[in-house]
């Protein structure tokens, strides 16, 4: 299927929401003109604007047939818009997916459970001549990392976080767009299923065998460097958190595989503990200043990298309280901070450009000194 032209009917039954259907909400935010409707019978009759606070008049419908009939554009694919913990197919979703295939829709999914491995779905798709795209299926023959990411000339920035599911991808995309607005050549390197959906390339590093996680990250940086060019910037999508009991392993593999020159720390100001249905309440999120120390120390085991900006998620606060939270973050860390969705990513884009200029100036001075000593 052609990612650049696909139009999506999104399946998010019982789960449409910012925290509960990240793939769906990201498609609505960044592919709005290509989203037909969202299936969620618990919110049917509303629009996505009513439910999410953005997305306009895309309808929320109760069934597949209603979505096809009432969508704002004709869908060419069904997108499974949820990726629950464990990545298994939601209950009763298989029959909807099979019926969508029979009606001629390609099937796109970001779950750990590959739909192409489910015989009934695979057979229905084959009979109808439609595609199944498992966004989380990693490529074969991934390498073990050897540190090649440190050799790229592009300026390499990794998004990191205090927790999972707090907007690392969204912040990275907003920063990418702001950098492009400043005339920079930028590649966004997707490391998760939703980023792959939006960009049309990438590797879902949380689906990779652990020995090859860093190698997958290394390949993403190398491809990002080809896309951005030697004078460009790579924004590597972050995953998990170094302090998350369940997902810290993928964060470490991504950090040591991508070997960034700089990091942007992402944080949801409404959280004091790791989020996860009361499972992780025992894990307190440290102050931002401490999280910066943690990331810089662990990155520095292989390659020194500084946190150069703070991306905050403030959607649960009033505008006044959100701006106050941003000021507190800046005062605590001495770094530029913003909510890149709510107030724009300009301060973070500027921080990246200035860090790249410092890197380039230092390299020129070293080159001049080496020439003088010859």
Task: Explain what the structure shows.
The chain is an alpha/beta fold. The chain folds into 2 domains: 8-134, NAD(P)-binding Rossmann-like Domain (Rossmann fold, 3-Layer(aba) Sandwich); 148-364, Rossmann fold (3-Layer(aba) Sandwich). It contains 12 helices and 12 strands. It has helices at residues 22-30, 48-52, 64-70, 93-102, 119-128, 168-181, 193-199, 213-228, 248-258, 288-300, 319-333, 346-373; strands at residues 8-11, 35-39, 60-61, 77-80, 106-109, 132-134, 155-161, 186-189, 233-236, 262-268, 306-313, 337-338. The strands form 2 sheets. The chain has a 6-stranded parallel sheet with strand order 3-2-1-4-5-6, sandwiched between helices. A 6-stranded parallel sheet has the order 8-9-7-10-11-12, sandwiched between helices. Helix 10 (288-300) links the parallel strand 10 and strand 11 (306-313). Helix 4 runs parallel beside helix 5 (119-128). The radius of gyration is 21 Å and the shape is globular.
Summarize it.
By secondary structure, the protein is of the alpha/beta class. It has twelve helices and twelve strands.
Name of the CATH superfamily of the largest domain? P-loop containing nucleotide triphosphate hydrolases
Which architecture of the largest domain would the CATH scheme give at its second level?
A: 3-Layer(aba) Sandwich
Range of strand content: 5-15%
What structural class is derived from the secondary structure elements? alpha/beta
Low confidence ranges: none
Per the principal axes of the C-alpha atoms, what is the gross shape? globular
Compute the gyration radius: what is it? 21 Å
The tally of beta strands, per DSSP, is: 12
Largest sheet: 6 strands, parallel
């Amino acid at each position: 299927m052609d990612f650049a032209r696909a139009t999506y009917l999104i399946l998010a039954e019982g789960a449409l929401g910012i925290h509960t259907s990240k793939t769906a909400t990201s498609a609505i935010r960044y592919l709005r003109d290509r989203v037909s409707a969202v299936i969620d019978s618990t919110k049917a009759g509303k629009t996505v604007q009513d439910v999410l606070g953005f997305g306009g008049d895309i309808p929320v419908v109760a069934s597949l047939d209603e979505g096809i009939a009432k969508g704002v554009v004709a869908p060419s694919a069904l997108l499974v818009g949820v990726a629950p913990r464990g990545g298994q197919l939601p209950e009763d979703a298989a029959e909807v997916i099979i019926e969508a295939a029979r009606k001629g829709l390609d099937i796109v999914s970001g779950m750990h459970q590959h739909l192409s491995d489910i015989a009934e779905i695979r057979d229905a798709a084959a009979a109808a001549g439609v595609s199944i795209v498992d966004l989380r299926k990693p490529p074969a023959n991934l390498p073990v990392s050897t540190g090649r990411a440190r050799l790229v000339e592009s300026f390499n920035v990794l998004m990191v976080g205090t927790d999972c599911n707090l907007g690392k991808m969204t912040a990275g995309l907003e920063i990418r767009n702001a950098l492009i607005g400043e005339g920079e050549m930028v590649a966004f390197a997707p490391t998760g299923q939703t980023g792959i959906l939006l960009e049309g390339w990438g590797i879902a590093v949380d689906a990779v065998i652990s020995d090859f996680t860093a190698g997958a990250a290394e390949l993403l940086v190398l491809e990002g460097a080809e896309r951005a060019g030697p004078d460009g910037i790579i924004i590597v999508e972050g995953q998990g958190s170094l302090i998350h009991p369940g997902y810290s392993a993928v964060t470490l593999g991504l950090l040591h595989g991508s070997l960034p020159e700089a990091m942007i720390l992402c944080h949801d100001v409404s959280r004091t503990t790791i989020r996860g249905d009361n499972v992780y309440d025992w894990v307190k999120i440290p102050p931002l200043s401490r999280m910066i120390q943690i990331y810089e120390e662990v990155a520095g085991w292989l390659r020194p990298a500084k946190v150069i900006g703070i991306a905050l998620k403030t959607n649960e606060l009033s505008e006044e309280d959100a701006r106050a939270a941003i000021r507190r973050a800046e005062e605590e860390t001495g770094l530029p901070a913003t909510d890149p969705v709510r107030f724009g990513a300009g301060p973070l884009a500027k921080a990246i450009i200035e860090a790249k200029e410092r890197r380039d100036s230092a390299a020129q001075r070293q080159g001049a000194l080496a020439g003088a000593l010859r």
